[in-house]
Amino acid sequence: MQPSLPCILVRAIEVRRSTMRFTILLQIFDSVHAAIGRYPHKAEIALTSHDAKRLKNLQKRAIFIGIENGYPIGTDLSRLDLYYNLGARYLTLCHT
């Protein structure tokens, strides 16, 4: 049995929204990395608590990247690896 037209439309809309969220999140990552690149003497991305301590000793800001809301994952769990490689160290599934 074929899915109904409304179900197909809902799925198409959700795929589009997921793609938009993914694109927006990548733009946010780019912005964070660009800002830190402009001010390397003031801040760095911290990936661990050791990084935070090292940066504090250097009198720099430790920037931890996190993702609030799991929507940018969509249905593609491999995006988690991408976000991790871009510096994200936590992800919440919803806003609390």
Backbone structural class? alpha/beta
Rough shape?
elongated
Helical content (DSSP H or I, runs of 4+): 40-55%
Mean pLDDT level:
90
**How many structurally independent domains?**
1
User: How do the strands line up in the largest sheet?
Assistant: 1-2
Distance between the termini: 40 Å
Low-confidence stretches: none
Count of β-strands:
4
Proportion of residues in extended strands: 15-25%
Please give the count of helices.
3
Largest sheet: 2 strands, parallel
Rg over CA atoms, rounded to whole Å, is 18 Å
- The string of secondary-structure elements, in order, is HEHEEHE
Description:
The protein has 96 residues and is an alpha/beta fold. The protein has one domain. Helices cover 53% and strands 16% of the residues. The chain is elongated, with a radius of gyration of 18 Å. The mean pLDDT is 90.
Précis, in short:
The chain is an alpha/beta fold. The protein is built from 3 helices and 4 strands. It has one domain (5-92).
